[in-house]
Amino acid sequence: MVQVDRATSRGGMGYRAIADALRAEIDTGDLAPGSKVPSENELMSTYGVEQPTARRALEVLKNEGLIVARRGAGTFVREFRLYRRRSPARLAESGWNAGRSIWQTDDAKRPTSIDHIEIATVDAPDHVASVLGLQDGEKAVVRRRRYLVDDVPIQFATSYYPEPIVRGTQVAEKNTGDGGVYARLAELGCKPVDFREELRSRMPREAEAKLLDLAQGTPVILVVRTAYTAGGQAVEVNEMVLDSSSYILEYGFSSS
Amino acid sequence: MVQVDRATSRGGMGYRAIADALRAEIDTGDLAPGSKVPSENELMSTYGVEQPTARRALEVLKNEGLIVARRGAGTFVREFRLYRRRSPARLAESGWNAGRSIWQTDDAKRPTSIDHIEIATVDAPDHVASVLGLQDGEKAVVRRRRYLVDDVPIQFATSYYPEPIVRGTQVAEKNTGDGGVYARLAELGCKPVDFREELRSRMPREAEAKLLDLAQGTPVILVVRTAYTAGGQAVEVNEMVLDSSSYILEYGFSSS
DNA sequence: TAGTGGTCTAGACCACAGC
DNA sequence: CTGTGGTCTAGACCACTAC
Asked: Which pLDDT tens digit goes with each residue over A26-58?
């Protein structure tokens, strides 16, 4: 009796091979975005495997962010709709920058909104206190809010400001007035003029996935913006959590 | 006889609850980076579940990028070592930008190298040809290479240049000479002075995961840099694939 | 009600690391 | 050799969706 390598071939296909086959169909477009992927039952008969094995194949593609399952309905190839964020924002104007982009978006007319606004005065986390130069006992005003495009959440942001500077101003109120927080800071003699943004990407924590309604296999992009006055003082730290499946980030700069 | 909701509680814990418990231990530091996570056998007896269930719990954390399994050895809490990439590079010099960063790195003395260098003349992909303004039939010189830090691959980059411009120059050779490609382009009257970088993040394709030796649950960051001459002509498109677990990206800019 | 995805058991065997 | 992670079967039951 011939003994077949069970873990790898077993004469049939393993869940990896099934995942590869489906992924290939997605890549070539045979399975177009939005279309239905074969059900577990169909995979079982097509590839001659049991349900858990068929299931694991789909699990792989879910974790790669290629498909989404809807219980009772089926599993579908994922569709993406990207939103472009430019830093600095003036990049949106024409210039060498107006040329063709690698990825196309159509954000111009998509309705945007904000919800979940929360304002508080807190002891800032150590890393934030350090950047803002807060002394022992000095607090921070924190503003949290969620951004939506087409009523879909795509970003959650948490901004910190030195409490001694913004105490009693509109920075600590829901309505920050014309020009927003930066205009208020300017009136306080702390106009932000230099900016640094630090970025990372990783898989989301559970709370982040819930807040942004992320599908399995969707990383988040962490953007931390620090704003400095002309004097070099940091007056804002803004920690943003972005749904990576909804964003293209764009930066522009010139050599000296 | 009391009927317990089987899918959720069953009296014991589901794989999600087990994953939550382990994740909490990682978050609090009870399970420190590098330390060994309970084996499948231990989870089975601790939580009174079968092996596949214990296994699925670990699978969740793997897909979140929190742990890595080494067959025969065990499963371990992941350790990260971050490398900082600054754009523009001059940000490295002092100034308002020299202040404390949110994430700390120690790249200064880590040895970096390049391998897998490949150079070819090809028909550029449509989106690249469009950006470079290539006419029908005009080709592109493409340079591919992989970047390593501490002999660990962290980035794979593919650069395209208009073949009519760089034909027969060192841009199309392995050794690009002093100052690299940008110095050669300058000599050709095509000095890059303006830059745009577009970023995305997503889970890696299989080929990307292999090339960068990525652990499960590790997204990639896609960076596409387009370089323009003073005349506004695009002379380089550089598509980079970054291991998100190894990188912090930093951008700086000033208002007006 | 039928079909689809989601969870779990019970048990088997394979591949690999470390002692 | 033992223990660890990796793969698979066979069969059960639950929860949800669409008809």
From this structure: 999 999 999 999 999 999 988 989 999 999 999
Nucleic strand D within 7 A of Cβ A227: no
Contacts of B5 (CB under 8 A, 6+ apart): none
- Residues spanned by the domain of B35: 15-77
List, for residues B203-255, the tens digit of each pLDDT value.
999 889 999 999 999 999 999 999 999 999 999 999 999 999 999 999 998 88
pLDDT value of position A28:
94
Residue A10 in any domain: the answer is no
Count of the separate structural domains present in chain B: 2
Peptide linkage before A162 cis (omega within 30 of 0): no
Which of B138, B151, B127 is CA-nearest to residue B222?
B127
Which residues in chain A touch residue B130, judged by CB atoms under 8 angstroms apart? Answer: 100
CA B1, CA B4: separation in Å to the nearest integer? 9
CATH code, domain carrying B29: 1.10.10.10
**Dihedral in degrees, nearest 10, Cα atoms B68, B69, B74, B78:** 0
* Nearest CB to B63 within list A203, A224, A228: A203
In a domain, B202, yes or no: yes
Per-residue pLDDT band for A99 (boundaries 50, 70, 90) equals: low
Distance, C-alpha B212 to centroid of its chain: 8
